[in-house]
Specification:
181 residues, two-stranded antiparallel ribbon, alpha+beta, 6 strands, 6 helices, four-stranded antiparallel beta sheet, 37% helix, 2 domains
Length: 181
């Protein structure tokens, strides 16, 4: 059995802060392939994922679920191998005893772009659903709601000390979604 096939127990890995004291997501994970476990402030497991670029995935999860991203445990591998990655993820979830909500009921919230319509205020929704509204006016409402939600996310992360440059995809805002570029 090669070293890459040995699955380290999740409990054996060191928890590292999601946001460093310098306000950054761990830079050493940029371009790294591996499996990562994300924990809430109370260190309860929220999500286990794998990626060909852990750093980029962590940025996406942070904007999608900022209230649940406080700690990380990571296992990198040298070469992309979906079977190895899935085996590690499966093992860590089993070790946890229960499937984290990020890997079950809330999976789309962790893995998909933010749906602006689902986060609209009642007033924004009322305006958006006005039968008299043309498509261009609806896009404007979506874009304004997306900007408001983006500002709320960035403000929350700034309060947590994030200094990372997060750029949202402007083209998605017109379609009612928010995600990083």
């Amino acid at each position: 059995m090669s070293a890459e096939n040995v699955i380290p127990p999740l409990a054996s890995l060191e928890a590292i802060p999601y946001i460093s004291p310098e306000g950054l997501i761990p830079q050493d994970l940029e371009g790294k392939i591996g499996v990562y476990a994300i924990f809430a402030a109370d260190k309860s497991l929220q999500y286990v994922g794998y990626s060909r670029d852990i750093y980029l995935s962590l940025k996406q999860h942070l904007i999608r679920q900022p209230q649940h991203c406080y700690w990380l445990k990571v296992q990198t591998i040298d070469r992309p191998n979906r079977t190895v990655l899935e085996d590690i993820r499966t093992s860590w979830i089993a070790e946890n005893g229960t499937v984290p909500t990020g890997n079950s009921a809330d999976q789309s919230a962790w893995e998909q772009a933010i749906d602006v319509k689902a986060a609209m205020t009642s007033e924004e929704l009322r305006q958006y659903q006005d039968p008299e509204l043309d498509e261009r006016s609806q896009q404007k409402i979506l874009k304004n709601a997306a900007r408001r939600i983006e500002a709320e996310i960035l403000s929350l992360l700034k309060e947590r000390g994030l200094e990372e440059d997060l750029r949202f995809n402007p083209k998605l805002k017109d379609t009612g979604y928010l995600d990083l570029k």
